[in-house]
Amino acid sequence: MYIIFETDFRISTSEIAPMMMYITEFQGVIPDLHCRTTRCHRLIELHSDKEIPRVVCKENLSLGVDYVFDGNRTTYILDFDLYCDPHRANLLSGAMLLGSVVSIFTGVFLFDAIGRRKSCMFGASLNLVTTLAATFAPSYFAFFVLRVLHGVAMYCTFNACYIWVLEFVPRKYRALYNSCSMFTYCAGYPMLVGICYVIHDWRHINLAAFSLFVIIYLPVLFLPDSPRYLLSKNQDKACKRVLMRYAKLAGVPLDLNGVQLIDNISGDAAPSFKTRLFSFWRERSMVLETFVVMYGSAVINILYFGLNYGWDTFGDTPYANYLYVCWGEYLAYVLMMFVGQLIGRRPSIVSACGTACVLFVVGMVDWTWSEVWNLERVVSLLGMMMIAIAYSLRFLYIGELAPTTHRGGVYAVCTISGAAGFLGPLISGVITNKRAKLGVFAGLAGTASLLFLLLPETRGRPIPEKIKEVSDRRKKQGLLFC
Question: 193-202: per-residue pLDDT in tens?
Fold first, then answer.
């Protein structure tokens, strides 16, 4: 019963992440252009739709004289005069990924210092404030800063909530929980598409998202903190209250009065941040595994966002395109649920990255059979499915690798990959040669696949509680660098 309850909580929050990440892709949709002069008509007829902005700006056509935009849609591209400045416009799409850098510092201090629940509430509150403020952003700079703060809020909330719930779930249900959480992550795509299909004013889109987020975040107010976290902080009585509360919810009689849950009953304070940091650097196995997942997460984010941003330019409308992405990711997460449980976490993530590497190499072949479809596009869709498997599985993998005493800090440090993810859209936009771009993607996926081989398998094994258990696990599995 409590597993269902906690999974329902996760379902109520995870769809916010894709909505916040890709909302600017819809807010920045440029209205249809209508020519008023013969010169404009002649230029437009000679070029494709994708080339129109470049031609209009290069030929110095005058807005209001040579052409006008459809008045039924507003966009920050026009409000902030970005039509002829695509690089600044692209920065807004990836700005929230920069917020992950700040979320490193907030996460390191918050997740293990004040707890999973309070960290989640902090991120949720910040997300609501910045979403509402973005509705009234007066300038490009203000909107950019708010997008960065969106990134801080999203990464803080997403990671804190994930750790919070993962520490409740028994080992045999972890893969199922991870898949369920990612299914609801995908639900954010059609929710965002639905809002933006109905509402065409970019500020009103923000306001609608804010109203929806208020409803989605309500469960945060009613759930207690993680018992594992409370034990790691020597909060014996608080842990008992949480366990007895969930036992009552499940209809199981449980009386923990007089039961000692913590070996040390001296009342000593939990280890300080400085103590935990020193213990981290002294444990060689912990340092190795953390840096491997940092690099792997960075690569996965670069590929995930590099492939995902820009679907609005594929086909006729961004609405259909992001629904295609949604169904592709749904299929990937269904595969992940079975593969991750059958062959294990490490083989799954190694295979996903390795397969993506091979697909990107194959995609270098120049083969086009229609105006929209070509081998590169098909390979990108299939590669996106492989990267989506790795993207989802690494959240579960990191949670099972890190000990409870350091789990929040490790998650926070690994969100530096969000900053690396900022490079994904830039690589896709700057490297115009498809073979060069796919070559970079293949190299990144291949190296990540090889490095993940250094990590232990965690399927069906207990989550480590203390940092010493990390090196013991590596010794039992006969891995290098114990």
Answer: 889 888 988 9
Residue 242, both tokens: 């949480």
The 8 Å CB, 24+ separation contacts for 359-362 are 359/383, 359/386, 360/438, 360/439, 360/441, 360/442, 360/445, 361/438, 361/439, 361/442
Query: What's the Cα-to-Cα distance from 315 to each of 115, 311, 369, rounded to whole Å?
Result: 45, 8, 14
Residue 65: how many other CB atoms lie within 10 Å = 10
> For the chain, what is the mean pLDDT?
79
| CA dist., res. 430 & res. 440, Å (int) | 12
Q: Is the dihedral of CA 373, 374, 375, 377 positive or negative?
A: negative
The Cα 120–Cα 124 span in angstroms is 6
Arithmetic mean of pLDDT, 223-246 = 80
At residue 265, does pLDDT exceed 50? Answer: no
Mean predicted confidence (pLDDT) in 140-161:
86
Q: Assess whether pLDDT exceeds 90 at residue 396.
A: no
Neighbours of 211 (CB within 10 A): 12
Give the gyration radius of the chain's Cα atoms.
24
* Of 48 and 1, the one with more pLDDT: 48
pTM: 0.75
Rounded to 10 degrees, the C-alpha dihedral 155/160/165/171 comes to: 80
Tokens (6 digits) for 337:
């649920």
Distance CA(198)–CA(153), nearest Å, equals: 26
**How many angstroms separate the CA atoms of 220 and 356, rounded?**
37
> Which residues, at least 6 apart from 48, have a Cβ–Cβ distance to it below 8 Å?
none
| Cβ partners under 8 Å of residue 154, min gap 6 | 16, 17, 20, 21, 96, 99, 123, 127
User: Rounded to an integer, what distance in angstroms lies between the CA atom of residue 220 and that of residue 224?
Assistant: 9
Fill in the DSSP letter of residue 452.
G
* Amino acid identity at 12: S
Number of residues assigned to the chain: 482
pLDDT-based confidence at residue 419 (cuts at 50, 70, 90): low
C-beta separation of 127 from 154 below 8 A: yes
What is the distance between the alpha carbons of residues 459 and 175, in angstroms, rounded to a whole number? 9
Residue type present at position 124: A
The residue assigned the tokens 């819809």 is 26
Would you tell me how many other CB atoms lie within 10 Å of the CB of residue 344? 17
Residue 356 has pLDDT above 80, yes or no: yes
Per cent of the chain over pLDDT 70 is 85
